[in-house]
Every structure is written in structure tokens, then in C-alpha cells.
Amino acid sequence: MGSFPHKVRGARFECRGSPAMRSLFGNLLHRFHMDRRGAIAMIFAVAIAPIMLLIGVAVDFAQVSKAQAAAQAALDSAALVAARSGVTDPVQLKALAAKYLQANTSTNVTKSLDIQTFTFDATTGEVSIKGGGTVQTSFLVLAGYSSLSFVVNSSALREVSGAVELALVLDNTWSMSETAGSGQTKIQALKTAATNLVNTLMRDSRADVKIALVPFADYVNVGVANRNMSWLSVPADYSTTTPRTCTTQTTRTTCEPRTCVRGTPKTCTSVTDGVTSTYDCTPNICTPATQVCTTTTVAPYEVCSGGSTTNYKWYGCVGSRTSANLWRSDASPSVPYPGFLATSQNCLNPILTLTSNKASLLTAINNLVINVGSYKPATYIPGGLIWGVNTLSPTEPFAEGRAYDPANRRPRKALVLMTDGANTLRMDQSTGRHVAFNGSATNQQSQLGQSNADTAAICTYAKSQGIEVFTIAFAVTDTTAKTMLQNCASSAANYFDATSSSALIAAFDNIAIVLNQLRLSR
Question: In 3-state terms, what secondary structure has residue 463?
Fold first, then answer.
């Protein structure tokens, strides 16, 4: 009996016997093979339905995953936009985030994305958003699920990153007594704006932020406690007393009384630091017009005069260094600044050097004044600017500042200059005092040009040391002054033309945003 081989689906079967037997066996085996292929078809037919359903489920879940990823990106962006805005009202913030989502979500994938919860932590400045959406299914609808939902969460936080040293060089001259909209005086608006900036930058007590406050007017006040520092040259206080003299008189003059009444009302004007003031200058009309006086001889009597004492003291006011262009930089710290004595205070609030003490800064800002008694100060911008640089400098007069980094990274140094007007004073290079323009109109224009040039030179020096300069023109109408301030700023984006109190506050808010770093916190 022979044998023959036969393969069935990869298995090898072998049969031995007569040809008849082999033929019979072969037929049986072929029938078995055909029956088996039919069974497999039936099995496949039964199995294909759940296989296709699984594939459909995978497709639907892939769509959900895609929608969730797109929604997460959109929600992250909305949280960042809200945090970046500087708005502090939660209702406005939520509306801002919702508007952004509406404008930046896909119409076919995340069109159903909605804000479910929105919170704003005013203490930390953190914006947190929870959103939800649905995706229409293609295959799971066969199992009774027409849509699948998803949830996404995002939080954004604006905080200071790295070390920041900031000098606030703020104009508190007499012109800041004017109003600039909203029923506020300019100085009131400045206090609000500066307070907001400090609160924003120092929101996190762990952040490495130091801020200096440099009020300026005619002069800068460096604080009387610094009188004996090596970087100052202040003469000793002194007093002068005029001699008392007495003379004997033997005559007395008496005059006939007159009747005086106010004449036609008249108003006169005067200008101080660009502010026009009015006063009553109505003359008196007396009858008779010429007074008749008579001198008579009397018993001798004594008339004395003089004997008064005038005190000269130092109130913290300093002028400019006059040699080798030192009024334009912080170079040569061994060359002292001149301190000036006076019979009354002619500089305002003292400098507050770099500090991380938030309470001290807020108190100093709140205490800013624009005059002392009858002293109504004018404007000398270079004096404020150079002391802003001095507060950031690593060398004397103040050495709280860390070393300069031209790349402005370690630490980030910044200076904010806010003024509401043009220079109205010049430096007297023989004394370092800041005095009024004088002489002809041509000479006065030349003196103004020199003060503006000194302002520009200090700005250039600050920027060369890696100090980022921001400038704010507050209700300034002088185009030359505005151009000077714009050129002083580190970039066009660092210059703010604030025409009102609300615009001033917005400018400070924007500066705070720039100095902060935005990040997703969750």
C-alpha cells in the first residue's frame, strides 16, 4: 500500500493503503476541508460585528481625545489672556475669557466648550478656569450614546520671575495739583497708580523684588540722616543775627485820616511750574487822594530795629555735581553731591532706597506732597533721573543695587520716569543749583535745550548699563517734552502718553504686567 501526503491549513497529514482506499480517504478529507472553511466563515461572520464596534468605539474616543486636547489648548490661552489683562474684577475677567474662547475655538471640534467654573484669587493673582464640552459620536450612537463629554482645567498666574530692581522716579511738583479727569488731582491719580504697581509686583512675598521711590521737583531730598555720608558735601548749619540799633527821636509825624474803598474789581495771574494761578489785585481808592501829614516836636523817645535771628539749616536737598559731566552719570562716586542750606524747606519727600518692604513703600507713596507751606516747586527732570540711577547703582551714593548686567537678566533693573510737564529749571554749573531760566527769550530757549539734553544723556547712560527705562507723559501738551520722553524710553512700547488719570493708572498697570512673567500654574 502506497502513501500520499495532504496539507490542511498548514498541517501536514499523511495516509497509507491501496489506491482505492487512498481515493476514498482523499474524498473524505476534501469534504472535511470544505466543511471547515464554511465553519470559519460562520465564525468570522459572528465575530465581525463586535470587532467593527470596537473599531468604532476607538474612532469615537480618538475624536474625544482630539477635542479635549484642542479644548485644553484653548482654555490655557484664555486663562493666560485673562491673567495678562491686568483686570481685577472677576466678572469682567470671566467675560474676557469667554469672549476669547468663543473667538478661538474650532466650530467642528470644540464648539460646545463652555466655562463651567471661573475663579480669580486677588491675593495671588491666579486665574482658574474649568471648562466642559461634548463630541457627537459616529459609532457609539448604535449603543445608545449619541455624544461623549469631557472636562478640562487650566490656571494661569502672573508673577515676578527672577530678581527685579525698580526705581520709581515720580514728579511731585506744584503742577501735580491740577486735575486730570475723574475729579482727582494728578497727585491723587499718581498715588493710586503707583500703589497698584507695588501691590502687583509685591503680591508674592517670596518674590525677589526691590523698589526705590525717588520723588523729584526743584531738588531731590536724600534724607537728613545721610548728612555725614562721604558722597555728600553739606556745610554746617548756621544762624545770622542783625545787630540791634536804637535811635532817639524828637519828632512825630501824624496824618489826617482818609476814607478808603475798594475800586473796580481786578484779577491778576501768576504762573508757577506751568500752573496759572489767579489772585485778587483790586486797588483801594482813598479820599482825599493825597494824605496831609504834620510833623511836630515831642519829648525824646527811642526807636529800635534789628536784632532778629535767621537760621540756615539742611533739609536734605541736594543739587548736581558740576565737574566732568558727572551730573549725567553715577561715575566717580567719590565726587560728592552738594547739599544746600536754606531758611525753609525747598525740597519735598525724601528718597526711599531699594527695599522689599511693601508697607514702607505704600506709606511713602501715600505721603507724597506737592508743596510745603508757600513753597511751590518747579520741575528739573535730570535731578530726579540721576537719583533714580543712583538707587539702582551698585556703587555709592546708595549701594543696595546689585551689579549692572548689560543684558538686564541678573537682576532685571528698570526705571519708571513719570512727569506731567517740561523742564522749567536749569542747572547753574558754577554752584550745582537748579534755577529759573533767565535773560532774553532766546537765552531761555537755549537753557531749556540744555536741560532737555541733560535729561536725554542720563536716559542714554541708564540704558547703557542695562536699565530698562519706561517713561510716562502725564497730561503733557508740550510736544518737545513728549518727544524727549519718548526718546528716553527703551522702546516705543515703553513710552506712555497718559492724557487722563485713568490712562495714568493703566500705564502703571501695563508696566507691572511687563515686569511680571506669565505662566500656567496648572
Answer: helix
Q: In angstroms, what CA-CA distances link 390 with 212, 393, 451, 461?
A: 10, 5, 19, 12
What pLDDT is recorded for position 4?
A: 39
> Residue 504: which domain range?
164-237+325-518
- Mean confidence (pLDDT) of the chain: 85
In a domain, 26, yes or no: no
Residue 53 has pLDDT above 80, yes or no: no
Q: What is the DSSP letter of 236?
A: P
Contact status, residue 125 vs residue 135, Cβ threshold 8 Å: no
Please tell me whether residues 456 and 499 are part of one structural domain. yes
HSE, side-chain direction, 13 A CA sphere, residue 58: 6
Going by their DSSP bridges, the two strands 337-342 and 126-136 should be labelled as unpaired
Reported in sequence order, the residue ranges of 83-146 that DSSP labels E, i.e. its strands, are: 114-121, 126-136
Q: 206 and 518 in contact (C-beta within 8 Å)? A: no
**Number of separate domains in the chain:** 3
Task: Check: CB of residue 473 under 8 Å from CB of residue 175.
Answer: no
pLDDT tier for residue 291 given thresholds of 50, 70 and 90? confident
User: Helix, strand or coil for residue 64?
Assistant: helix
Number of residues that make up the chain: 522
Residue at a domain's end among 142, 157, 172: 157
Residue 413, pLDDT score:
94
Q: Could you tell me whether strands 352-355 and 412-419 are parallel, antiparallel, or unpaired per DSSP bridges?
A: unpaired
CB 463 within 8 Å of CB 473: no
Q: How many CA atoms lie within 13 A of 274 on its CB side?
A: 21
- Which tens digit of pLDDT belongs to each residue from 370-393? 999 888 999 999 999 999 999 999
Contacts of 366 (CB under 8 A, 6+ apart): 191, 195
What dihedral do alpha carbons 198, 200, 203, 209 form, nearest 10°?
Answer: -60
pLDDT digits (tens, 9 = 90+) for 121-159: 876 678 899 988 888 777 767 777 777 788 889 888 665
Q: How far apart are CA 97 and CA 81, in angstroms?
A: 7
- Do 45 and 113 reside in the same domain of the chain? yes
Contact 487, 452 (CB under 8 A): no
Residue where a domain terminates, one of 134, 157, 180: 157
Q: Which three cell numbers mark 255?
A: 496824618
Mean pLDDT of 422-448: 96
Q: Rounded to two decimals, what is the model's pTM?
A: 0.69
Query: Are 115 and 56 members of one domain?
Result: yes
Mean pLDDT within 26-32: 54
